[in-house]
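2024-03-11 09:14:02 DEBUG pipeline.ingest accepted 1 chain
2024-03-11 09:14:02 DEBUG pipeline.ingest length=720
2024-03-11 09:14:03 DEBUG pipeline.predict start
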Amino acid sequence: MQIIDILKNYFGYDSFRSNQEAIIQEIMQGKDCLVLMPTGGGKSLCYQIPAIALPGTAVVVSPLISLMHDQVEALKANGIPAEALNSSTDTIEETIIRRRCEAGDLKIIYVSPEKLLSEIPYLFSNIKISLFAVDEAHCISQWGHDFRPEYSQLGLLHERFQGVPVMALTAPADKITREDIVKQLHLNGKTFVSSFDRPNLSLSVRREGTKAEKIKFILRYIGSHPGDAGIIYCLSRKNTEVVAEELKKKGINAAAYHAGLPTEERASIQERFKMDQIQVVCATIAFGMGIDKPDVRFVIHYDIPKSLEGYYQETGRAGRDGGEGICLTYYSFKDIQKLEKFMKGKPIAEQEIGKQLLMETVAYAETSLCRRKVLLHYFGEEYDVENCHNCDNCLHPSVKFEAKDALIVVLEAVAAVKENFRQEYIIDFVKGRATDDIVSHKHDNLEEFGAGEDMDAKVWNPVIRQALIAGYLKKDVENYGLLKLTAAGKRYLKNPTSFMIVADKEFKDDYVESAHEGSNNGEALDPTLFAMLKDLRKSVAKKRKLPPYVIFQDVSLEQMATMYPHDLQELQNIQGVGAGKAKRYGKEFCKLIQNYCIENEIERPEELRVKTVAKKSLLKVNIIQSIDRQIDLEDLASAKGLEFADLLDEIEAIVYSGTKLNIDYFIEGRMDDDKIDDIYDYFMESETDDLDAALDELDEDYTEEDIRLIRIKFLSEQAN
């Protein structure tokens, strides 16, 4: 039977995905291979199909009993003879399985690594083996996130079973882990890497806050997504129990899961979760590998993960059915300190590995770049999309700034110290910090020492991180993360060009959350209320025959769904809502929010903070007064020490907040009536006030300033 026929007849698929067919052909030809696919990418078929096609029995090594059970049951349901041998198999059942295997009745047998090793001289020496498949192969590497000592002896398969192909399978792993897998298993074939991108997963990182704040947010999130299955990962067993207990107090069907529970209880939790009898599992990393539940809708990391591999694996439990998966991670310096403390007492080499893996996670948490781009780059995959539209950083992008000079300083520093030091050393070097380490290497005597001491100290981490992603630097992970210049980096030093970067996010333990000047970054957003407010806005806009954004911008609705204003006075503390707009549209919105809070027993923030400071307020008043006196706007900008574009920013903020301004006197002096009407009509019909969209739609004769001025006129007349 052809492999495409096996795919159709046994598994019901018409075509292969990604690299599946090439991998299967490789094994059919008796060659080894390493397979890296994301969770839910179809790894199992890569060994199941050749197992059916080839004579003999395929031996699949798996670390988890639950995984074996699920796979065997699924294969049997498809008419494929398969069994599993592990510590849970009783004596009678084991005897039956051994006899079936010896008789050649089984196409696939799943074994734990311990069982494999103990049966090599006996069962497996007496049967024809078609192939070995080592699942979750990252477990063999100390660089992997889930190292298991029992895997370390699997390298003898080639020695004892010459001519039998070995397939190693794992989810994404970094370069050094891949190399380690190949080395440990003595693989001599190709490595197949599928795209690791999971576009349906929404990625965000949130400052920790207090435990009470975390629990409160989690409860609110789950309450607004009734029935959605989710996993909350915690570093400690204690936290799994604490979080689960808090959820249960609020009527949420939750369970704690960790390695300290009896085997039977863990198996029961897995099964009940799979059958939707448990909504949320609060677990350590002991939970997840091998859990085949496609409709997990959210994964929350209550504590920062130890590595990006672990993070990827764990977030990969969400949205395996292709539906939405919300992945939220809490991050604080305390987590980092705690994990570093755990490492003390371990062998130095292990500490170094652990620290490097942890620092990569820190870099991911603190970056303002697209999280998808950073994550995929870690696994060696380039993500060329400018904005993924599904992570917190892309949904709320930071402003870029020029960092050409800083990049030159970094690249020259790496070259000066002979590409033999890590990021922390390079930063100390460019800042001119004469640490004991730098002095001992006499690098404080180099010309490049302290070349960046006059620059902002906060620039160095983001410059290095983004230089790595841009390909100007590379990290020699195998040698403890030493920074190396790439060919592109050397070319850049000869011909420097603009290098625009974004600053890292700041996560400080003494940080106090304040009302956001822009979007709330989804940090306390009530998604249910937000959706209701959008529906109301749409209804109001329809009645008034206006585009929805004219009523309230999204950022205003987001803050309403965060702060829950109850009256018009409170509503005016929301960005983009002034007295005029509050009076005109606010009553219906306040009433909706009031009813929602009563129905859902929501405790509002103790106070709504006013975002504007005195200086800002004074400037606002001066601008309004100047426009009332019909002062030329270019003269006004000059008088206030502002660029004209910055003045327009201020005027737009005033108008968006609901204050009516008449700038006809200025517009009419620079544009003819047809031009004004064209732009005005565009905004009247458009569903968005986005400037880029307007520039794309309108004729190239219209400048950005022209469009902004008419947008101000339109909003002032129609919205205020």
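2024-03-11 09:14:41 DEBUG pipeline.report DSSP finds 33 helices and 17 strands in the chain.
2024-03-11 09:14:41 DEBUG pipeline.predict end
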